[in-house]
């Protein structure tokens, strides 16, 4: 029989622009301390920890948690791209739900470099090889300052073609996000944008054959 699992405490530090934040271990340690304080428990009550990050060497989770204490618990490092945080939380929940432990900790951190996201492994097949091939079919093999822009542009184009989504719809989503960020003191960007502001901003990539989408 599985057990009910409860989130006892949370902690979050302020988001900063890449290159201006503290090192990953400092950020991770601070977030853990806040979560423990919010839960009202000491670190020695934690029986397992799951540390999520993508851009870092192996066992970065251990280094971050050593700033909180060294109790001998297993620290499992989780790297699952955009699903890293939810994967770490899922594993912590699973450990408690199964009865393996009573208290598990999930922590996530990322020390980013300025500039576009890119892989640091260039001597082997990329993990996103199949996804990149699909992106090439959608937007062409062009360099627009990083694969992330190409991926989101391709997904946006596919959605527009399939469902008739307008560019203005995406602009409204961006404007709504800015309104939420304005109320979050931990957000890195807090200036409110209108839909008109977004539509008037310089376009990162106009798209191949974007004129065909004007009718949407």
The structure class reads mainly alpha
- Sheet with the most strands, sense and barrel status: 3 strands, parallel
Q: Helical residue percent? A: 40-55%
Distance between the termini: 52 Å
Shape: globular
Name the poorly predicted regions.
208-216
Radius of gyration: 21 Å
Query: In total, how many beta strands?
Result: 3
Q: Tell me the strand percentage band.
A: 5-15%
Mean pLDDT: 90
Order of helices and strands: HEHEHEHHHH
Summarize the structure.
This protein has 216 residues and is mainly α. Helices cover 40% and strands 6% of the residues.
What does this structure look like?
By secondary structure, this protein is mostly helical. The protein has helices at 24-39, 60-66, 84-97, 129-139, 147-163, 167-182, 195-200, and strands spanning 48-52, 75-78, 104-108. A 3-stranded parallel beta sheet has the order 2-1-3, with helices on both faces. β1 (48-52), α2 (60-66) and β2 form a beta-alpha-beta unit. The radius of gyration is 21 Å and the shape is globular. It starts with 23 loop residues before the first helix and ends in a 16-residue tail after the last helix. 17% of the residues are buried. The model is unreliable at 208-216 (pLDDT under 50).
């Amino acid at each position: 029989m599985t057990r009910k699992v409860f989130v006892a405490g949370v902690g979050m530090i302020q988001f900063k622009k890449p290159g201006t934040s503290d090192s990953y271990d400092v950020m991770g340690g601070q977030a853990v301390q806040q979560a423990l304080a919010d839960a009202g428990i000491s670190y020695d009550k934690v029986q397992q920890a799951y540390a999520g990050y993508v851009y870092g060497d192996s066992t970065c989770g251990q280094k971050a948690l050593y700033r909180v204490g060294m109790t001998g618990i297993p620290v499992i490092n989780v790297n699952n791209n955009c699903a890293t945080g939810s994967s770490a939380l899922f594993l912590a929940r699973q450990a408690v739900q199964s009865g393996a432990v009573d208290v598990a900790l999930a922590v996530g951190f990322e020390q980013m470099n300025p500039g576009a996201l890119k892989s640091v492994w260039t001597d082997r097949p990329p993990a996103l090889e199949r996804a990149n091939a699909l992106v090439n079919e959608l937007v062409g093999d062009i360099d627009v300052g990083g694969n992330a822009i190409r991926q989101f542009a391709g997904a946006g184009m596919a959605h527009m073609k399939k469902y008739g989504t307008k560019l203005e719809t995406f602009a409204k989503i961006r404007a709504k996000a800015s309104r939420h960020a304005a109320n979050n003191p931990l957000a890195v960007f807090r200036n409110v944008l209108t839909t008109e502001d977004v539509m008037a901003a310089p376009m990162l990539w106009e798209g191949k054959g974007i004129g065909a989408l004007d009718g949407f």
